[in-house]
Backbone:
């Protein structure tokens, strides 16, 4: 058997054992910002990062000319990486303005909020069940403790008046 054939068998058998999940809704494509619509400036960085950040023009500031939207990025020490990140952020912001609730970031935010709410609901359900089990155990134990308590009291010898008079009083 060659490698491809065994690999197909492995994945096909693995596929049969997995649970079915409905496919996630595909996100809309990202907006591509035209280079003619952007004014790009490179600035000296500020903040932590030492002398290298403060001396080099690695921070990127992009201005979208039609809308006037400005984005500044200084996430890394690399100018090229900061350019890519700033363009992505600018595209996301423009898409939010243009599409509103149907933008990629809004859809991602909604999915994350839904997942977080589901997780919180599951956690509440778990702890509610644990509390109920604990109450049931305590109710069952409290009935047994009362019986034991009354048995202990009945085992004690009864005190008579003569015992009380012979006991030295403190006071």
Residues:
């Amino acid at each position: 058997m060659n490698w491809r054939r065994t690999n197909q068998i492995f994945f096909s058998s693995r596929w049969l054992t997995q649970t079915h999940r409905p496919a996630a809704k595909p996100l809309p494509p990202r907006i591509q910002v035209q280079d003619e619509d952007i004014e790009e400036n490179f600035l000296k960085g500020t903040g932590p990062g030492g002398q290298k950040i403060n001396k080099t023009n690695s921070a990127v500031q992009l201005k979208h000319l039609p809308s006037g939207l400005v984005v500044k990025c200084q996430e890394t020490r690399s100018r090229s990486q900061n350019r890519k990140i700033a363009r992505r952020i600018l595209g996301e912001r423009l898409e939010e303005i243009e599409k509103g609730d149907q933008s990629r970031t809004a859809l991602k935010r909604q999915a994350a909020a839904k997942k977080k709410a589901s997780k919180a609901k599951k956690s509440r359900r778990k702890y509610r069940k644990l509390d109920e089990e604990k109450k049931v155990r305590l109710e069952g134990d409290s009935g047994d403790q009362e019986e034991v308590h009354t048995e202990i009291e009945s085992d004690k010898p009864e005190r008579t008046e003569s015992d009380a008079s012979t006991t030295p009083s403190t006071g």
